[in-house]
Amino acid sequence: MYKKHILSIAIISLAVAMGSLLSACNDNHKHDQYAPAGKDILIRGNGAEPPTLDTAIMQDVNSAAVIYDLYEGLTDFDQSDRPIPGLASSWTISKDGKVYTFHIRPDAKWSNGAPVTAADFVYGWQRTLDPKTASPYAFTLFSVVNAKAINAGKMPVSSLGVKVLDPHTLQVTLVRPVSYFLQVLTHPSTYAVYAPSIQKYGKAFTQPGNLVSDGAYMLKEWVPNGYITLVKNPYYYDAANVKISTVKFLPIVDTNSELAQYKAGSIDMTYTTPVDQYKTLLTQYPTQLHTVAWTATYYYDFNVTAAPFKNNPKLRQALSMTVDRDVLATQILGQQQTPLYTFVPKGIEQGALDAFVPYSWQKQAYKDRVTEAQKLFTAAGYSDAHPLEITIAYNTNDLHKKVALAIASMWQQAFGKAIEVKLNNQEWSVFIQARNTAQFQVARDGWVADFDTADNFTELLMCGNPQNSSHYCNHKYDELINQAEASTHPAARVKLLEQSQALMLNDYPTIPLVQYTYFRLVKPYIKGYDPTNNHLDHVHSKWFYFDYGK
């Protein structure tokens, strides 16, 4: 039955692909190699409406894409994800690795012409850590002295281990050496924010006319579910090298609509492409379709705070074992994704942790896994007479829908009448809220690394982490992670991380599915963009320029 099911999906996919191919063959639209003379607006697909442009509140890639254009941190990033000087032109690090002294550019200015100062960063960091802000990314600053206690409400924000030495010099003291701290500072939660605007407008400080930013661009328009327009910031310290004057982000959820607009020439760069047309597009646009391995994990969360998954690891294991990741990656998706049997994706820390211990059953034949899973399922108390009724929640996207349908079918075939699976498609902001508040049973999730370290993934599943959507909590796991992060010996750190992952995997709070790839179409006249080694997919529009030809 399982093979027949996959064949059916393959036939449907083939039919869709053939239809796309015929359409492509009949498409005589000329795709110019050169931008029209005088073109000075970059139009980018952005996948969905950003829930916020508040650097302390954002927690999604759609918001981050816009924020990266609006703001810049003490450190910036290049197209290979490496930290480079940002608003800080230089820095020094103490011999013990705990004290960083940043020298802010004297010509760093806000978009209203006011100077960016060390105090602006102190205000931004204190705001992120203030429990009243409820920042989902406060943990990025927990390596700073007293940050964790501040976020827990145990100490005042004024006790944070940062000091203004002078208007352009900021000193930061860490609890322990953090080898990737310069990467951490590229994250929006660590950016400076303009206090007068926040104090005057409150939550409305992110609106056009109110938002004061310090990056290459500033906010001009924001039409909800319509578009966001940014214009060049004339006060940006490197404004002379920002070639494109206007950037427009379009929150197009329907990937087929986005592709149609790209083909019509009304979008320069897509957020992604329709899953079912990927292979056709590879043939149709071989130089315009970019596919890159993402340092990112696509997974499902179990809500471990409520029935049926609370205190029921056998049931969680049974469902995880019956998901065929290989079929999911190659036959259902097929955009060069990698099957995942661990939570930490490959390539992290330049591949140093690729040998993390996976599930013990990874190499079992799928039919043997199903047999074992059926026994666990029965032991968990479910049968034809007492079926498991569950709902998979996912946000609107054809890829997420396709994955949910495939997994529901795999479970249905593995457990027959003993399981009833429903799908719940939700708009992005509604979905995020439901997942954050544990209003789900099984939910789609994904984590894209913010910087190249395993800690970026292992910390996610610690007790109380706002990004821990499964709401998993094992204090032994936390203890191992804390010990690993405190270790000054690389080999000992890796061993502790391996132990923590083995423990967590055996608890089954999530179902790691595949390692993402990201794939998008980019017009050939856009120059300056090279995603080849950009495995985090952090992008600045300031890199781009148009080729107008001759």
Keywords:
16 helices; 31% helix; six-stranded mixed sheet; 19% strand; disordered N terminus; alpha+beta; four-stranded mixed sheet; 550 residues
Question: Can you walk through the features of this model?
Answer:
With 550 residues, the protein is an alpha+beta fold. 31% of the residues lie in helices and 19% in strands. It contains 16 helices and 18 strands. A six-stranded mixed β-sheet has the order 12-16-11-15-13-14. A hairpin with a 5-residue loop joins strand 2 and strand 3. Helix 1 (2-25) packs parallel to helix 8, helix 9 (313-321) packs antiparallel against helix 11 and helix 15 runs antiparallel to helix 16 (490-507). The radius of gyration is 24 Å and the shape is globular.
Question: Count the helices. How many?
Answer: 16
* Total E-strand runs: 18
The biggest beta sheet reads: 6 strands, mixed
Poorly predicted residue ranges: 1-30
Percent helix, as a range, is: 25-40%
Strand content: 15-25%
Give the strand order, joined by hyphens, for the main sheet.
12-16-11-15-13-14
Overall mean pLDDT stands at 92
* Shape call: globular
N-to-C terminal Cα separation, in Å? Answer: 60 Å
Radius of gyration: 24 Å
Q: Based on helices, strands and strand pairing, what is the structural class?
A: alpha+beta
Short description:
Helices cover 31% and strands 19% of the residues. It is built from 16 helices and 18 strands. It is globular.
Secondary-structure topology with pairs:
Elements: H1 2-25, E1 41-45, H2 61-70, E2 75-77, E3 83-85, E4 88-93, E5 99-104, H3 118-129, H4 147-151, E6 162-166, E7 169-173, H5 181-184, H6 195-201, E8 217-223, E9 227-232, E10 246-250, H7 255-264, H8 278-284, E11 289-302, H9 313-321, H10 325-333, E12 338-339, H11 366-379, E13 388-395, H12 398-415, E14 419-426, H13 428-436, E15 442-448, H14 455-458, H15 475-486, H16 490-507, E16 510-521, E17 526-527, E18 545-546
Parallel strand pairs: 1-10, 13-14, 13-15
Antiparallel strand pairs: 2-3, 4-5, 5-7, 6-7, 8-9, 9-10, 11-15, 11-16, 12-16, 17-18
